[in-house]
Write a structure and sequence with these properties.
With about 425 residues, the protein is α+β, with helices and mostly antiparallel strands. It has eight helices and 21 strands. Helices cover about 20% and strands about 25% of the residues. Strands 3-2-4-5-6 form a five-stranded parallel β-sheet, with helices on both faces. It has a three-stranded antiparallel β-sheet with strand order 8-9-10, with no helix packed on it.
Protein backbone atom coordinates (compact mmCIF):
# COMPACT_ATOMS: atom_id res chain seq x y z
CA UNK A 1 0.00 0.00 0.00
CA UNK A 2 1.47 3.35 -0.92
CA UNK A 3 1.94 5.95 1.81
CA UNK A 4 -0.63 8.30 0.25
CA UNK A 5 -3.29 5.60 0.03
CA UNK A 6 -2.53 4.45 3.57
CA UNK A 7 -2.93 7.98 4.93
CA UNK A 8 -6.22 8.46 3.05
CA UNK A 9 -7.59 5.15 4.33
CA UNK A 10 -6.65 5.98 7.91
CA UNK A 11 -8.29 9.37 7.65
CA UNK A 12 -11.49 7.64 6.58
CA UNK A 13 -11.26 5.24 9.50
CA UNK A 14 -13.10 6.79 12.40
CA UNK A 15 -15.18 5.22 15.11
CA UNK A 16 -17.92 4.08 17.29
CA UNK A 17 -18.72 7.39 18.97
CA UNK A 18 -21.57 7.67 16.47
CA UNK A 19 -24.46 6.84 18.75
CA UNK A 20 -24.15 3.27 17.47
CA UNK A 21 -23.51 -0.15 18.89
CA UNK A 22 -20.34 -2.12 18.36
CA UNK A 23 -20.51 -5.83 19.16
CA UNK A 24 -18.92 -9.26 19.15
CA UNK A 25 -20.69 -12.59 19.20
CA UNK A 26 -22.87 -15.07 21.09
CA UNK A 27 -24.29 -18.50 20.44
CA UNK A 28 -27.27 -19.32 22.62
CA UNK A 29 -30.83 -20.39 21.99
CA UNK A 30 -33.67 -19.05 24.16
CA UNK A 31 -36.92 -20.92 24.77
CA UNK A 32 -38.93 -22.39 23.18
CA UNK A 33 -35.94 -23.93 21.40
CA UNK A 34 -33.79 -26.28 23.47
CA UNK A 35 -30.07 -25.53 23.69
CA UNK A 36 -27.89 -27.51 21.30
CA UNK A 37 -24.57 -29.12 22.08
CA UNK A 38 -21.65 -26.99 20.95
CA UNK A 39 -19.80 -28.28 17.90
CA UNK A 40 -16.46 -29.94 18.48
CA UNK A 41 -13.81 -27.22 18.54
CA UNK A 42 -11.03 -27.87 16.00
CA UNK A 43 -7.46 -26.84 16.61
CA UNK A 44 -6.48 -23.37 15.43
CA UNK A 45 -3.95 -25.01 13.10
CA UNK A 46 -3.74 -24.40 9.35
CA UNK A 47 -1.71 -25.58 6.36
CA UNK A 48 -1.22 -23.00 3.60
CA UNK A 49 0.03 -24.36 0.26
CA UNK A 50 0.65 -22.62 -3.05
CA UNK A 51 2.99 -21.80 -5.89
CA UNK A 52 5.21 -18.79 -6.66
CA UNK A 53 2.28 -16.39 -6.22
CA UNK A 54 1.76 -17.37 -2.60
CA UNK A 55 5.53 -17.61 -2.17
CA UNK A 56 5.64 -13.83 -2.56
CA UNK A 57 3.16 -13.42 0.29
CA UNK A 58 4.57 -16.18 2.50
CA UNK A 59 6.26 -13.94 5.08
CA UNK A 60 3.23 -11.64 5.34
CA UNK A 61 0.92 -14.64 5.70
CA UNK A 62 3.01 -16.25 8.44
CA UNK A 63 3.19 -12.98 10.38
CA UNK A 64 -0.53 -12.22 9.99
CA UNK A 65 -1.64 -15.69 11.09
CA UNK A 66 0.81 -15.89 14.00
CA UNK A 67 -0.35 -12.50 15.27
CA UNK A 68 -3.94 -13.72 15.08
CA UNK A 69 -3.26 -16.86 17.12
CA UNK A 70 -2.97 -19.38 14.28
CA UNK A 71 -0.39 -22.15 14.28
CA UNK A 72 0.19 -22.21 10.53
CA UNK A 73 2.53 -24.02 8.18
CA UNK A 74 2.97 -21.82 5.12
CA UNK A 75 4.75 -23.99 2.53
CA UNK A 76 4.54 -22.58 -1.02
CA UNK A 77 6.90 -23.73 -3.76
CA UNK A 78 7.68 -22.05 -7.06
CA UNK A 79 6.14 -23.84 -10.05
CA UNK A 80 4.15 -26.23 -7.86
CA UNK A 81 1.38 -28.13 -9.63
CA UNK A 82 -1.61 -29.64 -7.88
CA UNK A 83 -0.72 -33.21 -8.82
CA UNK A 84 2.57 -32.83 -6.91
CA UNK A 85 0.86 -31.13 -3.98
CA UNK A 86 -1.47 -34.10 -3.62
CA UNK A 87 1.54 -36.32 -2.87
CA UNK A 88 2.74 -33.78 -0.30
CA UNK A 89 -0.69 -33.76 1.35
CA UNK A 90 -0.71 -37.56 1.58
CA UNK A 91 2.65 -37.53 3.37
CA UNK A 92 1.87 -34.72 5.84
CA UNK A 93 -1.88 -35.16 6.33
CA UNK A 94 -1.62 -35.96 10.09
CA UNK A 95 0.32 -32.71 10.62
CA UNK A 96 -1.91 -30.39 8.59
CA UNK A 97 -4.39 -29.46 11.30
CA UNK A 98 -8.02 -28.45 10.87
CA UNK A 99 -8.04 -26.29 7.76
CA UNK A 100 -6.05 -26.01 4.53
CA UNK A 101 -5.63 -22.97 2.29
CA UNK A 102 -4.73 -23.84 -1.31
CA UNK A 103 -3.50 -21.41 -3.96
CA UNK A 104 -2.88 -23.74 -6.92
CA UNK A 105 -3.97 -23.83 -10.55
CA UNK A 106 -1.62 -21.34 -12.20
CA UNK A 107 0.80 -24.04 -13.44
CA UNK A 108 -1.69 -26.59 -14.72
CA UNK A 109 -0.94 -27.39 -18.37
CA UNK A 110 -3.38 -30.17 -19.23
CA UNK A 111 -7.02 -30.15 -20.25
CA UNK A 112 -8.67 -27.60 -17.92
CA UNK A 113 -11.72 -29.84 -17.65
CA UNK A 114 -9.53 -32.54 -16.09
CA UNK A 115 -8.37 -30.16 -13.36
CA UNK A 116 -11.62 -30.84 -11.53
CA UNK A 117 -10.64 -34.49 -11.09
CA UNK A 118 -7.42 -33.39 -9.40
CA UNK A 119 -9.42 -31.15 -7.07
CA UNK A 120 -11.63 -34.13 -6.19
CA UNK A 121 -8.56 -36.23 -5.43
CA UNK A 122 -7.21 -33.43 -3.23
CA UNK A 123 -10.47 -33.18 -1.32
CA UNK A 124 -10.50 -36.94 -0.77
CA UNK A 125 -6.99 -36.81 0.68
CA UNK A 126 -7.99 -33.86 2.89
CA UNK A 127 -11.16 -35.56 4.13
CA UNK A 128 -12.20 -34.14 7.49
CA UNK A 129 -10.52 -30.78 6.91
CA UNK A 130 -12.08 -27.48 5.92
CA UNK A 131 -10.47 -26.31 2.65
CA UNK A 132 -10.23 -22.71 1.41
CA UNK A 133 -9.26 -22.59 -2.28
CA UNK A 134 -8.18 -19.41 -4.06
CA UNK A 135 -9.25 -18.80 -7.64
CA UNK A 136 -6.47 -17.70 -9.99
CA UNK A 137 -5.80 -14.33 -11.55
CA UNK A 138 -6.81 -14.25 -15.23
CA UNK A 139 -3.28 -13.76 -16.57
CA UNK A 140 -4.21 -16.11 -19.44
CA UNK A 141 -7.67 -16.79 -20.91
CA UNK A 142 -7.51 -20.48 -19.96
CA UNK A 143 -7.44 -19.56 -16.27
CA UNK A 144 -11.15 -18.77 -16.46
CA UNK A 145 -11.72 -22.48 -17.16
CA UNK A 146 -9.54 -23.42 -14.20
CA UNK A 147 -11.61 -21.14 -11.98
CA UNK A 148 -14.81 -22.70 -13.31
CA UNK A 149 -13.50 -26.07 -12.11
CA UNK A 150 -12.78 -24.65 -8.64
CA UNK A 151 -16.30 -23.22 -8.34
CA UNK A 152 -17.82 -26.47 -9.64
CA UNK A 153 -15.88 -28.48 -7.06
CA UNK A 154 -17.28 -26.28 -4.29
CA UNK A 155 -20.74 -27.44 -5.31
CA UNK A 156 -19.62 -31.08 -4.96
CA UNK A 157 -17.68 -30.74 -1.71
CA UNK A 158 -19.47 -29.22 1.27
CA UNK A 159 -16.17 -28.48 3.06
CA UNK A 160 -14.67 -26.51 0.14
CA UNK A 161 -14.84 -22.72 0.52
CA UNK A 162 -13.78 -20.61 -2.48
CA UNK A 163 -11.84 -17.37 -1.92
CA UNK A 164 -12.21 -15.40 -5.14
CA UNK A 165 -8.72 -13.97 -5.69
CA UNK A 166 -9.58 -13.51 -9.37
CA UNK A 167 -12.33 -11.02 -8.49
CA UNK A 168 -9.97 -9.20 -6.12
CA UNK A 169 -7.37 -8.73 -8.87
CA UNK A 170 -10.04 -7.43 -11.25
CA UNK A 171 -11.10 -4.87 -8.64
CA UNK A 172 -7.54 -4.10 -7.47
CA UNK A 173 -5.20 -4.52 -10.48
CA UNK A 174 -2.40 -2.88 -8.50
CA UNK A 175 -2.15 -6.15 -6.50
CA UNK A 176 -0.25 -7.88 -9.32
CA UNK A 177 2.70 -6.90 -11.48
CA UNK A 178 3.00 -6.50 -15.26
CA UNK A 179 2.60 -10.26 -15.82
CA UNK A 180 -0.90 -10.10 -14.30
CA UNK A 181 0.00 -12.93 -11.92
CA UNK A 182 2.74 -12.34 -9.37
CA UNK A 183 2.14 -10.04 -6.44
CA UNK A 184 3.31 -6.51 -5.87
CA UNK A 185 4.39 -5.52 -2.34
CA UNK A 186 0.87 -4.19 -1.73
CA UNK A 187 -0.62 -7.35 -3.24
CA UNK A 188 1.34 -9.51 -0.84
CA UNK A 189 -0.17 -7.74 2.15
CA UNK A 190 -3.61 -7.91 0.55
CA UNK A 191 -3.48 -11.66 -0.09
CA UNK A 192 -2.14 -12.36 3.39
CA UNK A 193 -4.89 -10.28 4.97
CA UNK A 194 -7.61 -11.97 2.94
CA UNK A 195 -6.36 -15.42 3.93
CA UNK A 196 -6.39 -14.41 7.59
CA UNK A 197 -9.91 -12.95 7.28
CA UNK A 198 -11.26 -16.10 5.63
CA UNK A 199 -9.68 -18.39 8.22
CA UNK A 200 -11.07 -16.24 11.05
CA UNK A 201 -14.54 -16.19 9.48
CA UNK A 202 -14.57 -19.99 9.36
CA UNK A 203 -13.24 -20.39 12.90
CA UNK A 204 -15.73 -17.98 14.46
CA UNK A 205 -18.42 -20.66 14.50
CA UNK A 206 -16.32 -22.73 16.90
CA UNK A 207 -14.96 -20.11 19.28
CA UNK A 208 -15.99 -20.28 22.88
CA UNK A 209 -17.11 -20.94 25.46
CA UNK A 210 -17.49 -17.27 26.27
CA UNK A 211 -19.26 -15.01 28.75
CA UNK A 212 -20.86 -12.13 26.80
CA UNK A 213 -20.89 -8.68 28.33
CA UNK A 214 -22.91 -5.64 27.20
CA UNK A 215 -21.98 -2.18 28.50
CA UNK A 216 -24.03 0.94 27.84
CA UNK A 217 -22.60 4.37 26.97
CA UNK A 218 -24.12 7.81 26.47
CA UNK A 219 -27.33 7.03 28.34
CA UNK A 220 -27.81 3.50 27.00
CA UNK A 221 -29.03 1.36 29.90
CA UNK A 222 -27.02 -1.64 31.01
CA UNK A 223 -29.53 -4.48 30.71
CA UNK A 224 -27.19 -7.49 30.54
CA UNK A 225 -25.67 -9.91 30.03
CA UNK A 226 -22.80 -8.97 32.33
CA UNK A 227 -20.51 -11.98 32.16
CA UNK A 228 -22.65 -14.32 34.25
CA UNK A 229 -23.98 -16.33 31.26
CA UNK A 230 -21.72 -18.90 29.61
CA UNK A 231 -22.40 -19.53 25.92
CA UNK A 232 -21.14 -22.16 23.52
CA UNK A 233 -19.75 -19.67 21.01
CA UNK A 234 -18.90 -16.02 20.61
CA UNK A 235 -21.48 -13.33 19.85
CA UNK A 236 -22.64 -12.29 16.39
CA UNK A 237 -24.91 -9.26 16.44
CA UNK A 238 -26.98 -6.77 18.38
CA UNK A 239 -30.00 -4.67 17.35
CA UNK A 240 -31.86 -2.02 19.36
CA UNK A 241 -35.63 -1.77 19.81
CA UNK A 242 -37.43 1.34 18.46
CA UNK A 243 -37.73 2.79 21.98
CA UNK A 244 -34.07 2.27 22.78
CA UNK A 245 -35.18 0.44 25.91
CA UNK A 246 -33.89 -2.96 24.90
CA UNK A 247 -32.02 -5.03 22.34
CA UNK A 248 -31.66 -8.42 20.77
CA UNK A 249 -28.36 -10.30 20.73
CA UNK A 250 -27.81 -12.97 18.07
CA UNK A 251 -25.33 -15.84 18.25
CA UNK A 252 -23.23 -17.48 15.61
CA UNK A 253 -25.45 -20.56 15.91
CA UNK A 254 -28.53 -18.45 15.09
CA UNK A 255 -29.79 -18.27 18.67
CA UNK A 256 -31.41 -15.02 19.85
CA UNK A 257 -31.46 -13.49 23.35
CA UNK A 258 -33.76 -10.63 24.37
CA UNK A 259 -33.15 -7.80 26.86
CA UNK A 260 -35.31 -4.92 28.05
CA UNK A 261 -38.43 -4.45 25.90
CA UNK A 262 -37.17 -6.65 23.05
CA UNK A 263 -39.56 -9.49 22.25
CA UNK A 264 -38.63 -12.94 20.95
CA UNK A 265 -39.90 -13.82 17.45
CA UNK A 266 -37.88 -16.93 16.69
CA UNK A 267 -34.33 -17.97 15.87
CA UNK A 268 -32.21 -20.20 13.68
CA UNK A 269 -30.92 -22.03 16.73
CA UNK A 270 -32.58 -25.28 15.70
CA UNK A 271 -31.52 -25.02 12.05
CA UNK A 272 -28.42 -26.65 10.57
CA UNK A 273 -26.47 -23.64 9.30
CA UNK A 274 -24.07 -23.94 6.38
CA UNK A 275 -22.30 -20.79 7.65
CA UNK A 276 -22.45 -19.05 11.05
CA UNK A 277 -24.71 -16.06 11.67
CA UNK A 278 -22.63 -12.87 11.78
CA UNK A 279 -25.09 -9.98 12.22
CA UNK A 280 -28.71 -8.94 12.70
CA UNK A 281 -31.03 -5.97 12.14
CA UNK A 282 -34.46 -5.10 13.56
CA UNK A 283 -37.59 -3.93 11.73
CA UNK A 284 -38.69 -0.30 12.35
CA UNK A 285 -41.60 -1.27 14.62
CA UNK A 286 -39.52 -3.77 16.59
CA UNK A 287 -41.84 -6.65 15.75
CA UNK A 288 -39.30 -8.65 13.80
CA UNK A 289 -35.66 -8.98 12.80
CA UNK A 290 -33.32 -10.34 10.18
CA UNK A 291 -30.26 -12.55 10.72
CA UNK A 292 -27.50 -12.86 8.12
CA UNK A 293 -24.86 -15.59 7.82
CA UNK A 294 -21.29 -15.20 6.58
CA UNK A 295 -22.24 -16.76 3.23
CA UNK A 296 -24.86 -14.02 2.68
CA UNK A 297 -27.91 -16.12 3.58
CA UNK A 298 -30.72 -14.10 5.20
CA UNK A 299 -33.25 -15.38 7.79
CA UNK A 300 -36.45 -13.48 8.61
CA UNK A 301 -38.53 -13.47 11.81
CA UNK A 302 -41.69 -11.67 12.95
CA UNK A 303 -42.73 -8.99 10.44
CA UNK A 304 -39.29 -8.87 8.76
CA UNK A 305 -39.72 -9.44 5.01
CA UNK A 306 -37.30 -11.23 2.71
CA UNK A 307 -35.87 -9.05 -0.09
CA UNK A 308 -33.07 -11.30 -1.32
CA UNK A 309 -29.68 -12.55 -0.18
CA UNK A 310 -26.10 -13.08 -1.28
CA UNK A 311 -26.38 -16.80 -0.55
CA UNK A 312 -25.94 -17.73 -4.22
CA UNK A 313 -23.29 -15.09 -5.01
CA UNK A 314 -19.59 -15.84 -5.46
CA UNK A 315 -18.31 -13.66 -2.61
CA UNK A 316 -14.80 -12.24 -2.68
CA UNK A 317 -14.94 -12.01 1.13
CA UNK A 318 -17.40 -13.21 3.79
CA UNK A 319 -20.40 -11.11 4.80
CA UNK A 320 -19.80 -9.50 8.20
CA UNK A 321 -22.56 -6.92 8.71
CA UNK A 322 -26.13 -5.86 7.98
CA UNK A 323 -28.26 -2.72 8.25
CA UNK A 324 -31.99 -2.27 7.62
CA UNK A 325 -33.75 0.54 5.75
CA UNK A 326 -35.56 2.95 8.09
CA UNK A 327 -38.92 1.95 6.54
CA UNK A 328 -38.11 -1.77 6.76
CA UNK A 329 -38.43 -2.31 2.99
CA UNK A 330 -34.86 -3.39 2.35
CA UNK A 331 -31.40 -3.88 3.80
CA UNK A 332 -27.70 -3.64 3.08
CA UNK A 333 -25.08 -6.36 3.57
CA UNK A 334 -21.35 -5.67 3.80
CA UNK A 335 -18.36 -7.97 3.28
CA UNK A 336 -15.10 -7.86 5.22
CA UNK A 337 -13.48 -6.22 2.17
CA UNK A 338 -15.98 -3.33 2.40
CA UNK A 339 -18.10 -4.46 -0.55
CA UNK A 340 -21.79 -3.45 -0.26
CA UNK A 341 -24.82 -5.47 -1.41
CA UNK A 342 -28.26 -3.80 -1.64
CA UNK A 343 -31.71 -5.42 -1.40
CA UNK A 344 -35.21 -3.97 -1.52
CA UNK A 345 -35.52 -0.20 -1.80
CA UNK A 346 -32.17 0.80 -0.28
CA UNK A 347 -29.68 2.87 -2.26
CA UNK A 348 -26.01 2.29 -3.02
CA UNK A 349 -23.86 5.18 -1.76
CA UNK A 350 -20.40 3.72 -2.25
CA UNK A 351 -18.20 1.00 -0.81
CA UNK A 352 -14.65 0.25 0.29
CA UNK A 353 -14.45 -2.83 -1.92
CA UNK A 354 -11.69 -1.39 -4.11
CA UNK A 355 -9.62 0.13 -1.28
CA UNK A 356 -6.56 -1.43 0.36
CA UNK A 357 -7.78 -1.56 3.95
CA UNK A 358 -5.64 -1.04 7.04
CA UNK A 359 -8.05 -3.32 8.94
CA UNK A 360 -10.93 -5.42 7.58
CA UNK A 361 -14.50 -4.15 7.82
CA UNK A 362 -16.47 -5.78 10.63
CA UNK A 363 -19.93 -4.16 10.64
CA UNK A 364 -22.24 -1.42 9.33
CA UNK A 365 -25.16 0.81 10.33
CA UNK A 366 -27.56 2.97 8.31
CA UNK A 367 -28.06 6.71 8.82
CA UNK A 368 -31.48 7.65 10.28
CA UNK A 369 -33.00 8.64 6.90
CA UNK A 370 -31.47 5.70 5.03
CA UNK A 371 -29.49 7.94 2.69
CA UNK A 372 -26.12 6.81 3.90
CA UNK A 373 -24.31 4.34 6.11
CA UNK A 374 -21.27 3.77 8.26
CA UNK A 375 -18.89 0.81 8.07
CA UNK A 376 -16.84 -0.10 11.13
CA UNK A 377 -13.41 -1.73 10.82
CA UNK A 378 -11.98 -4.26 13.25
CA UNK A 379 -9.71 -1.57 14.72
CA UNK A 380 -12.72 0.61 15.57
CA UNK A 381 -12.43 2.87 12.53
CA UNK A 382 -15.33 3.91 10.30
CA UNK A 383 -15.98 4.67 6.64
CA UNK A 384 -18.82 7.11 5.93
CA UNK A 385 -21.00 7.16 2.79
CA UNK A 386 -23.97 9.22 1.65
CA UNK A 387 -25.19 11.51 4.42
CA UNK A 388 -23.59 9.49 7.23
CA UNK A 389 -21.40 11.91 9.20
CA UNK A 390 -18.00 11.23 10.70
CA UNK A 391 -18.12 11.79 14.47
CA UNK A 392 -14.80 10.55 15.80
CA UNK A 393 -12.67 7.44 15.98
CA UNK A 394 -12.00 4.54 18.29
CA UNK A 395 -9.19 3.27 16.06
CA UNK A 396 -6.30 2.35 18.32
CA UNK A 397 -8.24 3.16 21.49
CA UNK A 398 -8.57 0.51 24.22
CA UNK A 399 -12.01 -1.09 24.40
CA UNK A 400 -13.21 -1.38 28.03
CA UNK A 401 -14.31 -5.00 27.67
CA UNK A 402 -12.10 -8.03 28.13
CA UNK A 403 -11.58 -9.77 24.82
CA UNK A 404 -13.89 -7.42 22.93
CA UNK A 405 -13.77 -7.45 19.15
CA UNK A 406 -15.79 -5.27 16.77
CA UNK A 407 -18.20 -7.49 14.86
CA UNK A 408 -21.50 -5.65 14.51
CA UNK A 409 -23.02 -2.18 14.58
CA UNK A 410 -26.51 -0.93 15.49
CA UNK A 411 -27.90 2.54 16.23
CA UNK A 412 -29.72 3.26 19.53
CA UNK A 413 -32.65 5.67 19.23
CA UNK A 414 -32.19 8.67 21.51
CA UNK A 415 -28.40 8.58 21.48
CA UNK A 416 -25.75 6.51 23.20
CA UNK A 417 -24.63 3.06 22.26
CA UNK A 418 -23.84 -0.39 23.58
CA UNK A 419 -20.58 -2.27 23.28
CA UNK A 420 -20.91 -6.03 23.29
CA UNK A 421 -17.80 -7.95 24.27
CA UNK A 422 -16.98 -11.22 25.90
CA UNK A 423 -14.80 -12.63 28.62
CA UNK A 424 -13.16 -16.07 28.38
CA UNK A 425 -15.59 -18.83 29.27
Amino acid sequence: MTGGVRRRVRRWLGAAALGVTVTVALGVVVPPHPARAAPAVPSRTAWVEGDSVLLGAADDTRADLAQDGWKATVAPFGGLQLVAAIDVFRNVRPEMGSVAVIELGNNYIGDPNAFGAQIDETMSVLSGMHVIWLTTALFEPRQALINDQIWAAARRWRNLDVMDWSATVRADPWAVGPDGLHLTSDGRALMAGMIRQRLDAWYRQFTGPARPVVAGYGGAPGLGPSGQLTTAGDAAGIAATPTGGGYWVAGGDGGVLTYGDARYYGSAGGVHLVSPVVAMAATPDGRGYWLVASDGGVFTYGDARYYGSAGGVHLASPIVGMAAAPDGHGYWLVGSDGGIFTYGNVGFFGSAGALPLVSPVAAMAASPDGRGYWMVACDGGVFTYGDARFSGSAAGAPVPLTGAVFTDLAARPGGGYWLLGQQPG
